[in-house]
Amino acid sequence: MNAPKNILLMSRRAPYGSSAARDLLDIALTCSVFEQSVALLLLDDGVLQLLTNQDPQVIQQKNLNSLQSSLSLYDIEQIYVDADALTHHGIRHSELHLPVTLLNKVEISQLIANSDVVLTV
Amino acid sequence: MIFTVVVHASPCQNAAPESALRFCKALLSAGHTLHRVFFYRDGVFNGNQLISSPPDELNTMRAWQALAEEHSIDLVICIAAAIRRGVLDSTEAKRYEQNQTNLAEKFNLSGLGQLVEACILSDRVITFGGQG
Question: What is the CATH classification number for the domain harbouring A95?
Fold first, then answer.
């Protein structure tokens, strides 16, 4: 059995405008089933995926927040957010649905460099 | 070195699948191993057997088939993404009560586990058509 890999999943897409957010979470859950160490990194519009109190039912979409809430059950707790993107969108840390770690540009580079596999969606 | 290539984009509208093909050929000719090509999101359209290109244009689906034939490459299409987009083999067509199938030969439908397994076993995983 190989040692678990550090798999980093990155997204810069807003929720609901495309399937990116859901597709990313599907990979994350599968990584966890295979007992890999998985981290999520949300950049640019991707930080909007984590806004709390989403109400996508009016556009016939499933609520991402409920799927996000299940991440901790899969031991997925490394969730990183681009601090500049939050500022750009005027979002406060407290408005995010999950506990996250804010990273600056240098820290983002280090996170990517320290990951064994980086998958983008 | 062992590589896995991930394709997220459909052919015709996007150059990513053709870039992925060229990358696969380059790594194989350099003596590396290609563990798997995994098609996710709109990438599943690469396995649509009904793609009918003009004769003077590259048919990406057939190019993947030729690559798989020549080098015994594992071409895996994400089953959940494929069913949503109507790329079905006979088993799934039956399951979803469709009377047509269109999954091209050499491509196989399987789960995201095949992507994660490939990440575990490969030295390098390269995504084409990702938006990250």
Answer: 3.40.1260.10
- One-letter identity of residue A54: Q
Region A106-118 average pLDDT: 98
Q: Is A119 within 8 Å of chain B by CB?
A: yes
Q: Does A70 touch chain B (CB under 8 A)?
A: no
> By the 8 A CB rule, do A82 and B132 touch?
no
Residue range of the domain that includes A28: 6-120
**pLDDT for A1 beyond 90:** no
Neighbours of B111 (CB within 10 A): 15
Q: Is residue A1 part of a domain?
A: no
Asked if residue A59 is part of any domain, the answer here is yes
Active site residues of B: 78
Q: Which of B12, B70, B73, B69 is nearest to B46 (CA)?
A: B12
All residues of chain A having their beta carbon less than 8 Å from the beta carbon of residue B112 are 26-27, 30
* CATH label of the domain that carries residue B38: 3.40.1260.10
Nearest to A34 among B41, B116, B130 (CB): B116
Does residue B132 carry a pLDDT above 70? no
Query: In the predicted model, is pLDDT for residue B67 greater than 90?
Result: yes
Cβ-Cβ contacts under 8 Å, B38 against chain A = none
The interface predicted TM-score of the complex, written ipTM, equals: 0.94
